[in-house]
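Dear colleagues,

For the upcoming journal club I promised to circulate an example of a predicted protein-ligand complex. I picked one with flavin-adenine dinucleotide because it came up in last month's discussion. The inputs are reproduced below in full, followed by the predicted structure.
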Amino acid sequence: MTNENQAPREVDIAIIGGGPAGLAAGLYAARALRTTVLFEGGVLGGQIATSDRVENYPGFPDGVGGFELAMAMHQQSEKFGMETVYARVTDLQVLEDGRFALRTDGGGDFIAKATLVTAGADPVKLGIPGEVELTGKGVSYCATCDAAFFKNMEVAVVGGGDAAVEEAVFTTRYASKVILIHRRDELRAQKVLQERAFAAENMEFLWDSVVEEIHGDVAKGQVEAITVRNVKTNEVTRMPMSAVFIFIGQTPNSNLLEGIVPMDAGKHACVNAWMETPVPGLFVAGDVRADAARQVVSSAGDGATAAIRADHYITDHF
Ligand SMILES: Cc1cc2nc3c(=O)[nH]c(=O)nc-3n(C[C@H](O)[C@H](O)[C@H](O)COP(=O)(O)OP(=O)(O)OC[C@H]3O[C@@H](n4cnc5c(N)ncnc54)[C@H](O)[C@@H]3O)c2cc1C
């Protein structure tokens, strides 16, 4: 319970978001002996905590559970002194003296010399029955991460933009058949990607179609079938399927930065190679930034870069 009249707590570095970017940033910031507070308003570990298995994070030749990896990262950061506040940051202001005022929904108010926004992104969901229950069990929003689990199986990819087509082509390396399901009769993706998709031997296209339900066994952790409706004929078909990869967009959690830093058309914050924004002392790292690879390893790298730079910034300015 926090007292509303309590003075804000002063810290060196505030980190907003406890996914791989924030946790790596916390490790570097705390290990540089800066007082470091990380705020997590949802699930500690971020998106990766929802992934069953991670096979492409270096150092784990047999893969590692997503949740297990997130908890290990958190333990390592706290070991060096990072403090975790389990609250959502609801307001971020730049003060006249260059520091940052952070307001949270239950964790109190803070003032930080530098702030790192590592708030990540949420994939846009289809919002259909079976999707939530089977996420991480055959329903995935990252083929780069999960396609290898479905070797020689039939899988569906939903969407028609760059991400869907690129990830569908990637998935053809593993799956026996990839069925790209798109609600229109042509793709929106760049021509070069379309050409690759049309050239792939084990790829089929289901046009004018939407997935209406995903069926599976939650206890066994597997997708078994999907229900698809043709939007022109209204014909409904149930198709056996081992996985469904959904790429219908991503929503970066960049609302705290609106009006403060420049953003791309998709509302990802624009930063330089040091993760710096035009606001001195304000850094953005991981999936919430523009031009990110959107992987655990790249997010962790971003977080480390931002923390190293934030440490230098504090030395130079305070
Ligand atoms: C199902 C799935 C499987 C994946 N598998 C892999 C894989 O195998 N390999 C791989 O490299 N990548 C994988 N990815 C991608 C990877 O998880 C992301 O690239 C990575 O998690 C991004 O890290 P991040 O720290 O930038 O953001 P996120 O992981 O999105 O974390 C951001 C965190 O910030 C918190 N937050 C947001 N706003 C606030 C706020 N205002 N206050 C406080 N907290 C806030 C959120 O609750 C969240 O915990 C997968 C993604 C998904 C969804």
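Two points we might discuss: The longest helix spans residues 296-317. The chain has two domains: 9-122+250-317, 125-246.

See you all on Thursday,
B. R.
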